[in-house]
Amino acid sequence: MATLILPGEWIKNWEKSGKHEFVQLCKELTEKTDHGNETKDIQAALYEVCSQVVQGNLKIDLVSAVLGEMMELRDDLPSILADVFCILDLETGALEEKNKRDHYTHLVGACLSFVPEAILKERLDPETLESLGLIKQAHQFNQKIVKIKTKLFYKQQKFNLLREENEGYAKLITELGQDLSGNITSNLVLESIKSLIGCFNLDPNRVLDIILEVYESRSEQDEFFLSLIKSYMCEPITLCHILGFKFKFYQEPNEETPKSLYHIAAALLNHKLIELEDLYVHLMPVDATIVEEHKREISEAKQIARKLVTVVLPSEKSEDKEKEKEKEEEKNEKPPDNQKLGLLEALLRIGDWHHAQSIMDQMPSFYATSHKAIALALCQLVHLTMEPLYRRAGVPKGAKGCALQPLQNKRAPQPTESFEDLRKNTFSMLCYLGPHLSHDPILFAKIVRLGKSFMKEYQTDSRPEVKDKMEILLSCFLSIADQVLLPSLSLMECNACMSEELWGLFKLFPYQHRYRLYGQWKNETYSGHPLLVKVKAQTVERARYIMKRLTKENIKQSGRQIGKLSHSNPTILFDYMLSQIQWYDNLIVPVVDSLKYLTSLNYDVLAYCIIEALANPEKEKMKHDDTTLSLWLQSLASLCGAVFRKYPIELAGLLQYVTNQLKAGKSFDLLILKEVVQKMAGIEITDEMTSEQLEAMTGGEQLKAEGGYFGQIRNTKKSSQRLKDALLDHELALPLCLLMAQQRNGVVFLEGGEKHLKLVGHLYDQCHDTLVQFGGFLASNLSTEDYIKRVPSIDVLCNQFHTPHDAAFFLSRPMYAHQILSKYEELKKAEKGNRQQQKVTKYVAACEQVMTPVHEAVMSLHPARVWDDLRPQFYATFWSLTMYDLAVPHAAYEREVNKLKAQIKAIEENSEIPLNKKKKEKERCTALQEKLQEEEKKQMEHVQRVLHRLKLEKDSWLLTKSTKNETITKFLQLCLFPRCIFSSIDAVYCARFVELVHQQKTPNFCTLLCYDRVFSAIIYTVASCTENESHRYGRFLCCMLETVTRWHSNRAVYEKECANYPGFLTIFRATGFDGGNKADQLDYENFRHVVHKWHYMLTKASVHCLETGDYTHIRNILIVLTKILPCYPKVLNLGQALEARVHKICLEEKDKRPDLYALAMGYSGRLKSQKVHMVPENEFHHKDQPARSATPASQQNGPGSAGKPAANTSKTEEGGFEDGDRVKDKSQGTTKPVNKANSTAAKVTTSNGNGALNSTKAVKDDKEKSGKEKKEKKEKTPGSTPETKAENRREKQRDERAGKEERLLREGKEKTPKADRKLDEKSGKDDKAKAGNGEPVEPARDAVKESKNKEKGDRNAAIATLKSPNPRSDSAESERDHKRRKLDSHSSPSHSSSVKDSSNELKDPATKDHAVNEREASQESKRRKDENGTNSSKNSQSTSPSCDSPLTPEKEKTKRSKSSSKEKAESVKAERASSGGKKESRHEKSEKKEKRDSAGGKEEKKHHKSSDKHR
Q1: Which candidate, 1313, 1308, 1311, 1377, places its Cα nearest to that of 1345?
Q2: How confident is the model at residue 836 (pLDDT cuts 50, 70, 90)?
């Protein structure tokens, strides 16, 4: 009460100023209109003043006078003052100070004049009233009150009931039933009723009951009766009891509550004449019963669903029981009358949403609206609520629609005028409606159209002030779609129009929102409602029925059934269909064809279902053997490709899924992208292309389309455009490329830890192929601006995005090509001139402008030392060109043009084709023909321009800062090998580029060394390839071999293309050259020896891989051999050796590894068919004695054999073989990175890079050291195979040698194939003798023995051989026979595998013709000295292609300075000796060389020892 405290000054100066201030305050408080607060303030003010009087601070008469004046301010002031007195009465009554109580009573007494006694008697205590003299005795007064209350509340008044006073009630009914259309109002009727009650003493409650009865029969007269009841009413609870009694009457069995009763109850509730809580307790059934019923419905629905899903074998008994149950259900079908639902419907009909909502809240969700009448009533209310907004924003153009009459009820929800108004009531009404909106498709369509209208507004209105509201509304519409629209669609039977209407809204949502909605719909919606549970089960059953009968023959009928089923429940249907496809992939084609009757929404749902199936965490993406991808994943990927190509489905979700999987480091799902790109864009990725197709792929786009693919590309324009748009719209093109490029290594190093090697290889191939395919799609489909805008520069790609270099250039290549072309066009326009020379100059200028930044950018990709060997310009040129730039496939163009001509001819000859169609077809073919010819012409001009550009560039490509060997190594490592396994076309390109660099006479490029390194070192390359890379590597080797074979097969071609080319120089002069003189060039015969050596090295490597037993080695080498079959093997004995090993593989792998068996069998068959084209060795390269078998491949040390005649075979070739065989053993036993398989390159690789050509320089060194080297190696290098170890033990145990030798020879006989033994018979007299005795020829021992003899000082024989003009002289033969006899008496390391025997067999005869070519060898060694100026020991010290000489630069300088003058003189002598036939000069030269080499011999020996130890 004491909220207002009067200032103390007012009390002190009451008479002067306080009184006036107080009155002023009271006036202000009375004038305030603060809805009741002013009464409290006045009470507080009066309380303060009165309490001051009670405390004795103010005089009673002064205050009473002021209070009396104030009574005029307000009418209710006496009552307010009485309330204050009442409070003070209580307060002072409890005080002990008597004087304060006296002050109080005197104050009240002074105020009696203006406060009525009646009010005081109501408010004050009886004792206080007695002390004031208002009553005589307080005790009597209390008794009187009790009597009055008893009379009022407890004494029942007697009224006349209907049967007692029928006349009064009859008049009452007549009064209520009269015509109310005139001026009769409820007030007039109420007066009549009152008079009737008074006259006939009628019971007022009975009268009220009759009023309700009449109202019920005349329910249309709401206004009259409601105002009458409102005027008549005594207590709302009484009215509730009467209504409740009426409802109770209808709760008896078989009674139905009339709708009129529901209506009057709803009307009374709406007008707040009764409370819902009071009435609700009178209605039946109770809430607990409703909840039980709802639970029962759900369990029954689930039971039905279970029955539909499980297969039950019906029996007669069970069928009878089911029939009985159905009959019982029919009897019980009529539900008991639910009065709560009846009242709810009535409330909805009159628009009382507030009370209706309260009733629905008491029930389980969607229980009320599952009754159709209530659902329709609520739908009608929603119609009326949203009508104005729909008319304004939702009506489509051209639609009229019928206007709805608004409700008369002013308390009904307000109609919506804006989207914001929908949030007030409309959205909540729809949420209560839920799936039962299906009862009103028109309302469904209206809501969807409003949603479309809102989404358009949402997308266009970017004002920041409305953004938050718009976001809230968007979330509301999404909720409505989730909770109302999609579930309702499930309950609509086959309504395709609604599905399309809904898609109109959904397509405006981003796919993330849509997929979220589909996910909820599929996985959660169906479990929440009994009806939806049943619908789901029925859909699955129907889907099963259709899928069982779906075949290619009945696609149309089944497709229609699928379409009908999908309109309502697509998620359930597609889920089942996809599960079937994952099991049976033969369903893919009929299913895809049968989906043509789907709606747009269904296609979108299908895309979601596919993604969900792919992402299913419960499914393993690998088979149980962990080596291949699961069939279900392959089936889904195939389905993706087919479905997305054929139907207009949005791709963004699928592409984003693949991107996300790649981000997570998972590459399995790239299979999907591969299928989609292949089907939609028609871009195939296969390594099984024919050579004709590959040739066509090197031409223009038209030639590619006509001849480059297995299936002709048709009708991919639209689908590839869709794919392109999806990638660009969602900015996924570049991210996918980069992720794939990064993931290639991720497959091996991140994913591949626990996976099977075969699977890792497969995933790597899949990732790589998809990258190539996808990059090809982007390059051919994106506009140039789009492509350049998205692909960053090469240094950013590699350094910032960590893209592997091959992939980075692959992505950048189309960009460079276009930039050069556009710059070229610019320059042409700027300066008019049509001369070819001017055009070429402009092209070169355009290239410089475009590629100069690229040259600078590539500098950052590799360490600075790389650019000492290769120029950035050369590197960028190699990586930026394609086969299109290097050569025109004239044959492919001609082939396609001829096909078209034949087609035209066939059309002309076909009389059945109508004339107009003939004309069209001919025009099409002619136009295509002209296009191809124009394209060919264009490509020819382009290639000429490119070749001219390369001619200008070539001189600055390779620097001479380091050795040729290092240059070639860098070229192979950074350019050739990475690109040759990138794609089939790149493989061809690499081979063609090497040939081109040779043809351009590029300075410092050693063609021979390059080819030698490629053919000599294939073991490790093959072993590290995946399956697809093996195909490409094989194609590359095949193209390289084709070039070599062309040069080998024809002297004229060789003379024309190689003879005077710097790539075939055997000595690189320090002073440069002018094309090289004849003495420096490799002649034709020696080149043939070199080619034979390469063939041998390929055989050796192949046999090594085949004998490892390792899956990857065998598979890859078989793939490579199959690819190079047109060019290799060409030599009969090599082919037979290979055939034997492959046959062995076929036998071993038949039951173990069927895929290897299939490969081996396939190759074996094709190899046999090639046998007719193989030639004996003496036909393959020139031999003085045709009877001898082929020159061993190792007879030349590396490419050095190129410069070294075959005469060098007797010693150096065996060293090479020994090296090669040791390498073979080491590669089986160790993982040492040094590739000793390059045994040929072992002596080839010298510090100046042309050591390959300088092996003749090492001839005499080899003579001295080969025996020692082999001895040391034999002692220090243990063989990795058990046989080799056994042989080493036999070496030590000389006394048991003879018996073990026989056993060893027997083993060799068993292992050597018949073909090899036949070859042995041809290999010389001694060989014949051995072959006749059944002993295998083992030249490996010959080689070792000869090297030992040489070591002991047997040089005289060699010198005599050198002097002898006739290599078949008796002395030479007798010497060799002597050696062979000595060799046979010794045991030597015998190679365990028969291939080693056969390959060594090939070596033996070669020892016999070393004298023939020794002459040329000495010349070669002199030439090498002229160039190198270093000790020849350097050549023999190089043990691998990448090893440099161990000599220090200082030693090299001193040796170079000492020997330079002598070397020049000796070279002159050597030339003379060779021309004049003087053998002594060679003998002298060899002696001098031995002396010179003695200084380096020690270091050489040390080096060999250390290297042997290292091995």
Answers
A1: 1377
A2: low
